[in-house]
Request: fold
Amino acid sequence: MLEKFRYLTSGESHGQALTCIIDGVPANLLLSAGYIDQDLVRRQKGFGRGGRMKIESDRAKILAGVRQGKTLGSPITLLIENKDWANWQDVMSPDPGVKSQESRVKMLRSKNFKLLTHNSKLYPVTHPRPGHADLSGALKYNTHDIRNILERSSARETAVRVAAGAVAKKFLAEFNVKVLSYVTAIGGIKVASSRSQDQGSEKRILEIFKKAEASPVRCHDKEIEKKIVNKINAAMKKGDTLGGVFEVVALGVPAGLGSYTQWDRKLDAKLAFSFMSIQAIKGVEIGLGFEMAQRFGSEVMDEIFYQGARFYRRTNNAGGIEGGMSNGMPLIVRAAMKPIPTLRRPLSSVDIISKKPFKAAYERSDVCAVPTASVIGEAVMAVAIADSFLSKFGGDSIEEIKRNYKGYLKQINKF
Ligand SMILES: Cc1cc2nc3c(=O)[nH]c(=O)nc-3n(C[C@H](O)[C@H](O)[C@H](O)COP(=O)(O)O)c2cc1C
Reply:
């Protein structure tokens, strides 16, 4: 799906570090670890997060691709250390220091399947958690230690995706494109649905974003924020969890990113793919999304007007995309996050060795991570837009892309 701004991540949740290699960032973009860290800090905020966030204070290290504060055009390598690694070095060691998996499983059998611990960590993990990669992953990768699965399937990986997203944002900022997010619902408590007129108004979106940045649940409405905080507290007390909905908006995107000419070049397809790749995201809408399906056509199409030598719309039900291309209005993506699947009041599961019923394993966990997911949403949206931007305007250096961009703006402004 990504053609020009590509990246791969690696790293386990309690391993030494998370890394990513980003390919396609043009030369001469000013970039510092400090800039990336701002988004890493935003990702770690949010009411409802678990104990892990108190241990980690993520900071990015730039290992390659940047010299004297400027990108080189070569691949960029980023690294985020896991502070918790200190507590997991033996269990997560790449060397066979602790007993091998085989012998641990044997020992478990000999102890009549009583859970073993090593420095207070369960090993092996044999109780798959419903709603996680645990069971399918153990079957697929042929392991009886679910730790081998949960370490990588964990949303800890999104820390380094947010770092990659920050690089994309820095690139987009050169062209005055901003990517912002806010939460619209948690546990069924919603802000009043945003009107399509609002969604066309940059001023209104910036206002909402500013308020959301100051809110512990990234919600711009103070009354709703209070209700959401109470609901999260109640879920916490019950050992339960909550999901919700957030919106990510891109401002300043020119018309013509993406294309209808081939299925995998459509901007809406790229965005849906990107958002669905975030752990626990189960639905994505563009613009009015599912609600559009319930209305008359005359109510939802964004009519076209022309004044002051430019085309414009009074509504933005399409969320800024028509025919797989940006249309110059704000891009609006809404994503639904399921409740966190690990519950303190654990769910029924089956031990994968004894095949006896057991309660699912509990490992320190969030109660609600929707505010964080919205920051991750910004990152994946920024990458998708940067990718389409680079496809359209090409260029090996920022200067070259700016020239191409300027030429294109001239073309559409005198169209
Ligand atoms: C920011 C973020 C934080 C998360 N925190 C947790 C957590 O603490 N505990 C948990 O069980 N799941 C957590 N999840 C969700 C799981 O990672 C996810 O549900 C699981 O990997 C299964 O993937 P799926 O829901 O996409 O099928 C989190 C997801 C995100 C995006």
